[in-house]
Recover the amino acids of this structure.
């Protein structure tokens, strides 16, 4: 966020994978007495077991969240002890960094008393010693909802991260691509899908699958509903499709970072990001969502991105993030940065101050905004997710 007076500077880095299906469960709507097979893809999430050489040494740690659990950390009825290797906890290697585990009758397997409502299965895949564990990209535990007989529905695709409160996986699409939609319900009903306004599907059953064409850039919306004759459920997915970056020269007199313009109602942001395809800015000024008018222009030499923010209110703090798209071979990763920049901090020299990213493997450095001599920020492409928080700025 562009922030006018603020004494704190912070930066957050997230490495995210597009359309990652970290956990897949069969059936899609397990009940408390169902048998369920859970497959984990260790190339997703925090990649804690990706390319683990001893594929026969993978086990699960499992429990349930019930109506008596105090919070999402209150796993109940966990039958296995961490860092042990009981045969009943052993996961089956499927190859290609995937493992499966089957629970035969959730309630019986975990010895959950009758009358206690099972809300979610809590699960981690780990190695035998417990030194490696497969988790969500933010290192949180993974969960699978457990359903009752009441009508329920969900998107199978686009995929959601299996957090306690599931969130959408990042979607990277271009105009001309198709977006695959797989919407299911646990009971037969009328299923409908709308894409960017018009209704595109109306079927009776328990699943509807479609792949509509993305014809325009900007904000996209998928709405899906199911009606079983008594109850209607509606689910919505929103995502953004960016056009190619406009190639425009950097405004004269601007430097890397924040450039305040006369009148205190506009600013030009300049970001050094060589070799990248696109960068956008999200923050308080656009409700933290990507928008066409806050996509950054790319300089003809391909080294920098810039955008002019207008309509700002003098004296008001604005938080913002740079959304930087990386260009790895698979084209599926990007870095998210958050900066809280005080107005009094102007661009200075490039003296480097090093910061340690704990418990994350750094794959790539990307030069970034430089604010005064105390701060030089490299963007990090990391395995999983890391956070760097820098405290109160020191003035020299």
């Amino acid at each position: 966020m562009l922030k006018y007076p603020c004494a704190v500077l912070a930066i957050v880095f997230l490495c995210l994978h597009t359309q990652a299906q970290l956990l897949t469960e069969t059936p899609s709507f397990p009940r408390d007495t169902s048998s369920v097979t859970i497959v984990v893809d260790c190339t997703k999430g925090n990649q804690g077991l990706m390319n683990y050489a001893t594929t026969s040494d993978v086990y699960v740690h499992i429990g349930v969240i019930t109506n008596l659990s105090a919070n999402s950390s209150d796993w109940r009825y966990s039958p296995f002890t961490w860092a042990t290797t009981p045969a009943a906890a052993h996961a089956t290697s499927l190859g290609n960094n995937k493992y499966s585990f089957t629970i035969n009758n959730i309630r019986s397997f975990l010895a959950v008393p009758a009358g206690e409502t099972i809300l979610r299965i809590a699960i981690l895949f780990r190695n035998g010693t417990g030194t490696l564990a497969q988790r969500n990209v933010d290192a949180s535990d993974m969960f699978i909802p457990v359903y009752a007989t009441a009508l329920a529905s969900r998107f199978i695709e686009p995929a959601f991260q299996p957090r306690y409160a599931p969130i959408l996986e990042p979607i990277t699409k271009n105009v001309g691509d198709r977006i695959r939609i797989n919407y299911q319900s646990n009971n037969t009903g009328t299923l409908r899908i709308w894409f960017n306004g018009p209704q595109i599907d109306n079927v009776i059953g328990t699943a509807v699958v479609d792949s509509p064409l993305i014809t325009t850039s900007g904000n996209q919306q998928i709405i899906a509903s199911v009606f079983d004759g008594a109850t209607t459920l509606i689910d919505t997915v929103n995502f953004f499709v960016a056009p190619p970056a406009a190639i425009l020269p950097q405004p004269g007199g601007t430097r890397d970072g924040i450039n305040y313009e006369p009148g205190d109602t506009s600013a030009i942001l300049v970001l050094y990001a060589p070799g990248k395809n696109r960068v956008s800015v999200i923050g308080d000024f656009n409700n933290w969502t990507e928008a066409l008018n806050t996509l950054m222009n790319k300089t003809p030499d391909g080294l920098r991105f810039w955008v002019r923010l207008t309509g700002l209110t003098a004296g008001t703090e604005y938080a913002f993030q740079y959304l930087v798209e990386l260009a790895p071979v698979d084209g599926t990763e990007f870095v998210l940065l958050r900066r809280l920049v005080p107005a009094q901090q102007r661009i200075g020299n490039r003296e480097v101050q090093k910061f340690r990213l704990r418990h994350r493997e750094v794959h790539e450095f990307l030069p970034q905004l430089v604010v005064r001599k105390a701060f030089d920020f490299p963007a990090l492409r990391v395995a999983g997710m890391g956070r760097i928080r820098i405290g109160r700025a020191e003035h020299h």
In short: The CA atoms of residues 2 and 318 lie 4 Å apart. The chain has three domains: 11-16+243-388, 19-164, 175-241.
